[in-house]
């Protein structure tokens, strides 16, 4: 998963976080080209939809999660929140986290059980889970 | 609220090395498995650059990196102080240099001390737990029993309504208890009390939020100030989560500096029957590590609710 690499990059070059929103899409594509390189026959075919869903959350979902998080944590103006931002790094405590989860449940009309909620560390984790729950709900 | 203010041990001195050579205060031994000691810092009051550098110096490289990856200087300082508080506190009870501790996480992510085989001067293993609010970081210490601690600002505002939070996360009996409280301020305070107690229990249990879902156990403050914990009745199609809940835990709930509720929970492994509930012995210090320690329990700063 790309997440550990990007987390390290953010720690070393914090200034680059500003560019990450746009860059993240490129990075997702970069990981696809990595896969394609090892499977030359696939390169000529469109990437199956299931690969896309499992590799990244929808940008739209990420944006919505960022907004809910910003409201809950009263994040300072000009703070950048991206997919790799960890909730704890924004100073979220346990009460904040459950309120964020509730906010997400309301916004997306889903239910998040405790064991799923526990493994959510970053904005992207939340968005990926949401996309999964929404698609299961709509299926 | 006037707190006792003993004069500082030394006047302000520049140079981290001088601070580091001061002996730590004499260890305050934990008398029994029923005693819990809490040491806390107020980050907003700690702004001396040389002091902060000295605390930073106590951290391991990974702790340092972790602190620096927090979002913004204030959160970075809090993260650093949290580790410095933990290390200096453990050092008080173990004669081990604060820099020497290694830590690990249990399989559910709860932080624990990684003892070395030569830590032979420890008769009983120390257990710790940390809680943060934006203005206070607390470290609870217990001897030989798992411990959980949670501190919350009394007046902390929630974005969701109290009852909607309770309905989503608490048990029906707890919701009923809160719903009966007409005054919204009083209701909010009772919610926070319950929240800190439940958090402290889950943290003591050490199995993560899903290991002890909040709606699987009820906590009740009884009229004789006893805290009662009981497992919620399980519906037959419920999952296994909550199977690890046990009721042999001791609690203390206190109001700290008139601004916070602090809940502490330790495992109660006393054998045999006792005449009535035996209270958890709680001692609380405000600390500026290496500079000043103030015992605040037994004063108005710490008002036991239980």
Automatic annotation (TrEMBL), chain A:
PROSITE patterns given in the database record: CARRIER (PS50075), PHOSPHOPANTETHEINE (PS00012)
Gene Ontology MF terms in the entry: acyl carrier activity
Gene3D superfamilies membership: ACP-like
GO cellular component, one term: chloroplast
Keyword annotations from UniProtKB, A to Z: Chloroplast, Fatty acid biosynthesis, Fatty acid metabolism, Lipid biosynthesis, Lipid metabolism, Phosphopantetheine, Phosphoprotein, Plastid, Transit peptide
Superkingdom in the source lineage: Eukaryota
Principal location: plastid
Compartments where found: Plastid, Chloroplast
Keyword Transit peptide: yes
Carrier domain span: 59-134
InterPro entries, alphabetized: ACP, ACP-like_sf, ACP_chloroplastic, PP-bd_ACP, Ppantetheine_attach_site
Recorded family membership: Belongs to the acyl carrier protein (ACP) family.
Function: Carrier of the growing fatty acid chain in fatty acid biosynthesis.
Protein's name in the database: Acyl carrier protein
Lineage of origin: Eukaryota, Viridiplantae, Streptophyta, Embryophyta, Tracheophyta
From TrEMBL, chain B:
Domain 4'-phosphopantetheinyl transferase: 146-265
Protein name, UniProt field: holo-[acyl-carrier-protein] synthase
Keyword line: Transferase
E.C. code: 2.7.8.7
UniProt lineage: Eukaryota, Viridiplantae, Streptophyta, Embryophyta, Tracheophyta
Assigned GO CC terms: cytosol
All residue ranges annotated as the 4'-phosphopantetheinyl transferase N-terminal domain in the record: 49-137
Species this protein is from: Leersia perrieri
PANTHER family: 4'-PHOSPHOPANTETHEINYL TRANSFERASE SUPERFAMILY-RELATED, PHOSPHOPANTETHEINE TRANSFERASE
Entry keyword Disulfide bond: no
Top-level EC class: transferase
Molecular functions (GO terms): holo-[acyl-carrier-protein] synthase activity; magnesium ion binding
Keyword Membrane: no
Any single GO BP term: lysine biosynthetic process via aminoadipic acid
């Amino acid at each position: 998963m790309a997440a550990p690499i990007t987390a390290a990059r953010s720690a070393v070059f914090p200034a680059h976080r500003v560019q990450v929103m746009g860059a993240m899409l490129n990075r997702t594509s970069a990981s696809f080209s990595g896969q394609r390189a090892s499977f030359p026959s696939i390169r000529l075919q469109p990437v199956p939809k299931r690969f896309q869903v499992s590799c990244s959350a929808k940008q739209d979902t990420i944006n919505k999660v960022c907004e809910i998080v910003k409201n809950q944590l009263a994040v300072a103006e000009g703070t950048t929140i991206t997919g790799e931002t960890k909730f704890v790094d924004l100073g979220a405590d346990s009460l904040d986290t459950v309120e964020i989860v509730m906010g997400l449940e309301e916004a997306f009309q889903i239910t998040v059980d405790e064991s799923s909620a526990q493994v959510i560390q970053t904005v992207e984790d939340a968005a990926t889970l949401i996309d999964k729950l929404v698609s299961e709900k709509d299926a | 609220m006037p707190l006792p203010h003993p004069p500082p041990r030394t006047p302000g001195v520049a140079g981290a090395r001088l601070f580091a050579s001061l002996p730590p205060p004499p260890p305050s031994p934990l008398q029994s498995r029923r005693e819990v000691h809490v040491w806390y810092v107020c980050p907003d009051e700690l702004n001396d650059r040389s002091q902060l550098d000295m605390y930073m110096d106590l951290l391991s490289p990974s702790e340092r990196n972790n602190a620096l990856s927090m979002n913004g200087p204030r959160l970075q300082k809090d993260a650093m102080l949290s580790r410095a508080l933990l290390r200096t506190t453990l050092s008080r009870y173990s004669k081990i240099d604060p820099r020497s501790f290694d830590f690990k996480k249990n399989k559910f992510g709860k932080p624990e001390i990684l003892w070395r085989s030569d830590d032979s001067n420890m008769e009983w293993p120390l257990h710790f737990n940390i809680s943060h609010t934006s203005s206070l970081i607390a470290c609870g210490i217990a001897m030989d029993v798992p411990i959980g601690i949670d501190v919350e600002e009394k007046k902390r505002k929630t974005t969701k309504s109290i009852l909607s939070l309770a309905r989503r996360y608490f048990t029906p009996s707890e919701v009923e208890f809160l719903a009966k409280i007409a005054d919204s301020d009083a209701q909010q305070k009772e919610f926070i009390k319950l929240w800190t107690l439940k958090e402290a229990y889950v943290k003591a249990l050490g199995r993560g939020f899903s290991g002890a879902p909040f709606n699987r156990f009820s906590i009740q403050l009884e009229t004789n100030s006893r805290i009662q914990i009981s497992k919620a009745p399980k519906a037959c199609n419920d999952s296994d989560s909550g199977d690890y809940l046990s009721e042999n835990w001791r609690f203390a709930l206190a109001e700290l500096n008139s601004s916070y509720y602090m809940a502490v929970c330790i495992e109660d492994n006393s054998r045999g029957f006792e005449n009535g509930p035996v209270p958890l012995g709680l001692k609380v210090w405000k600390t500026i590590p290496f500079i000043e320690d103030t015992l605040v329990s037994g004063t108005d700063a710490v008002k036991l609710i239980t």
